[in-house]
Design goal:
Layout (H helix, E strand, L loop, with lengths): L1 E6 L4 H11 L5 E4 L1 H7 L2 H9 L4 E8 L3 H10 L4 E5 L4 H14 L2 E5 L6 H11 L3 E5 L2 H4 L6 H8 L7 E4 L7 H5 L5 E4 L1 H4 L4 H12 L2
Parallel strand pairs: 1-2, 1-8, 2-3, 3-4, 4-5, 5-6, 6-7, 7-8
């Protein structure tokens, strides 16, 4: 299992400050959608220039213009890019083909997908490297968690390709660890911690990596 930090603060300077603390202990560093919305590919490029060995995921949530948007992100240095599973299959295939052409990987985000087993198998067959169940921030406010969705996806595809995101923290990590997804994604539980490096180390220890 890999630990991914999802950093949603919209400031390239802070993105780099956090990377300075954890670049040698985090498995995947995610530049969150809010940052990309505000500053484009600049934080992705800055991270890869400073820490070329660190795996950087750009949470682009592509839904259209697959080849072009994937090209911009991969040229900036993104190792992994994301596309929404609710997108048309043509878009998803374009993102996958383009990213693979650059030597990058693709995570397909299942947010708002109703039939998780069927869609996860479908995008896996298209060549997705990872498929992630994701309870968005707005749904978390209503008490939703991604645990049930994770159970569905790991029963449908290779669990090593499954990812899970949505309000995961130390108090709940064991529930997700037990299902052995390939990637566990945590956001504010890590980047808002008083000691971010220690929080990452503790969560990695909790999932056994």
């Amino acid at each position: 299992m890999k630990l991914q930090i999802a950093v949603d603060v919209a400031d390239t300077k802070r993105i780099l400050e956090i990377a300075d603390m954890i670049h040698d202990v985090i498995d995947i560093y995610e530049v969150g959608t809010p940052v990309i919305m505000r500053e484009g590919v600049a934080p992705v490029r800055a991270l890869k220039e400073k820490y070329p060995q660190m795996t950087v995921l750009a949470d682009s949530k592509i839904m259209d213009g697959g080849a072009l948007e994937a090209t911009y992100l991969c040229e900036a240095g993104a190792d992994i890019i994301t596309v929404l599973a609710v997108s048309d299959n043509t878009t998803i295939r374009e993102v996958i083909d383009t990213a693979h052409g650059f030597g990058s990987e693709v995570l397909v985000d299942l947010m708002c997908v109703r039939d998780i087993p069927a869609r996860s198998r479908e995008v896996e067959q298209m060549g997705a490297d990872y498929v992630c169940v994701h309870t968005g921030t707005d749904m978390q406010k209503l008490g939703r968690t991604p645990l049930r969705d994770l159970k569905e996806i790991v029963s449908a595809i290779d669990s090593a390709k499954a990812g899970v995101a949505g309000g995961i923290k130390m108090e709940t990590i064991d529930q997700y660890k037990a299902l052995r997804p390939g990637i566990i994604i945590a956001g504010s539980a890590l980047y808002s911690a008083p000691d971010i490096r220690q929080a990452v180390i503790e969560m990695k220890g909790a999932i056994g990596v």
